[in-house]
Amino acid sequence: MDANTIQILISMVVYMAVVIGIGALYAKRANKDSESYFLGGRSLGPWVTAMSAEASDMSGWLLMGLPGVAYWCGLADAAWTAIGLAIGTYINWLLVSKRLRRYSVRANNSITLPEFFSNRFREKNKTIMLIAGAFILVFFTVYASSCFVTCGKLFSTLFGAPYVVMMIVGAAFVLLYTLLGGFLAESVSDFMQAIVMIVALTVIVIIGTVQAGGLNAVLDNAREIPGFMEFFGLATPTLDANGQQIVEAGKPLFGAASDYGALTICSMLAWGLGYFGMPQVLLRFMAIRKEEELKRSRRIATVWVLISLAVAVFIGIVGRQLFPTAHLTKPGAENIFITMATSSLPPILAGFVMAGILAATISSSDSYLLIAASAFAKNIFQGVVKKKATDKQVMIVSRVTLLVLALIGVIIALDENSVIFSIVSFAWAGFGATFGPLMLFSLFWKRINKAGAIAGMIGGAGMVFLWKLVISQLGGVFAIYELLPAFIFSSICIVAVSLLTKAPSQEVLDDFEAVRAGKVED
Fold it and tell me: How far apart are alpha carbons 419 and 416 in whole angstroms?
């Protein structure tokens, strides 16, 4: 390990020490009871609510996955995804946040998403809670594995150590931090990490643009590649038999631009639909101390997302000018941010920028693991298996669950050739289709009933797997992002089954009307 690498390591260690310090600071408050551990006692301010929601949502794919897509095939895929996410962020804060905050209190002070859905329909046998908890376990384990892949790629690229060893080290750090502090520590540190992420992105894109010869030079280079700077076309790297881009005379080869039609655009914009079902974001709506503060949070979150997504996409464009042959495979392209940072900054500063990737990864993976653990401990163990379980027992079970989930996530992440963007897109579709339509109908349609809710969850999740693994393989019009057809199918299931079965009880209808009228309690 040379002197530069040691300086980078020191910077990252300092950052990690600060993160652990935050966890230790809030550990006592977090472990007071299960509500404090899983929802922070509904005490978040508007800035922490907004920044932690976006940091926990974006994860390492913002600094590695999204720039990697732009670097590999140009503007279209990355830009339309970013546009969909920006629109989805704003609409989610505008429509869902206030009513969910109010409804979660009305629904017997629900502190987890499965608990809210169960209490929303006043079910006694906890079927919805069990199904929702099970799906959270499945999709968040996949999500957490994408964060571990990010850690492995980051550390192995920086320090030249084996990927698997570095991935396990990163996973162990995330697990330690999550066990220590709970939701409150996670949210406060996510606020700090959101700042680190946006600063890191901005610094790298400015320095990279200057080194590339200015904005015009970057754009001129990108326009020379067929389809690279088009919104309605896609660059196509020319690959050899091993999936590696061919280089001739020092330049990577590209084929003719691929068509990028309206259906593909709608497919990428559909990323925005995922927000309505993202537990890590929805929980922040439930955890804010006052409903009135959500308006300020919405503005903060929207500005952060617009800047971060735009800069992340442009980093991939700049990287293609600066390092055209540095990354010749699709998985390797996700390292372009690391390459730019380590090549253009002094080692100490590069270390802090690398901490931006670590920040993104930690802020997401701790959320994923914590929410998944709460789904099992609070909703399945206490809600179904042992209804009289004490708070202490719930906390013990949640920590054991964290260990098990982290282990499964590590196993999934063992493949060094995993593409972060692909893993995240599947889990995102899973949550968006399973919980998104259910959340919207639960908040805004009083005729939805328990049977419709169950049908919507199962139909949405099932269609994600079916479309991804079977239907999309047919190609053509079927080769679209699975979230779009699954979201539509889930919505149809909810409406059809609700109308064909018994209407909700009067108590459920009274709750709905009270929330719509702005009442939390009678």
Answer: 9
